[in-house]
Design goal:
The protein is α+β, with helices and mostly antiparallel strands. The chain has two domains: about 35 residues, no CATH class; about 90 residues, GMP Synthetase, Chain A, domain 3. It contains four helices and six strands. It has a three-stranded antiparallel β-sheet. Strand 2 and strand 3 form a beta hairpin. Helix 2 crosses helix 3. The N and C termini lie far apart (about 35 Å). The relative contact order is 0.14.
Length: about 140
Amino acid sequence: MKRTANAHWNGNLKEGKGNISTQSTVLSQTQYSFNTRFADGVGTNPEELLGAAHAGCFTMAVSAALAQSGFTAGDLDTKAIVELDMVALKIAGIKLELKAAKIEGVSEEQFLTIANGAKENCLISKALGGTPISLEVIYG
């Protein structure tokens, strides 16, 4: 399986602008620029999209891990906070904040074990290699 996305850019870094599109067309010539990345412009940016991808992947991984343990997930809500190190020009870390409804038959300890396993095994977590990823869970 392969998924595609396209980016177009025109101009220099600060005054230029571009757009991003995805194969699914959920993003279709969606604007991005220096301001949307480093200030408060209208549009998206690569780090925001990475956070969205990580939150989505991780949340699905939690659901899958619960199913493998014989449980059905209720509401799972994840926020991914991508921290940039502007001096080193790298992603310094990602914090995943998971809020989960209590699941009948699953203790908080068991849920934390499942969530931590999902964090390690989510495809986006694996793709991020050595990037520090932390997890905060509110369960029940």
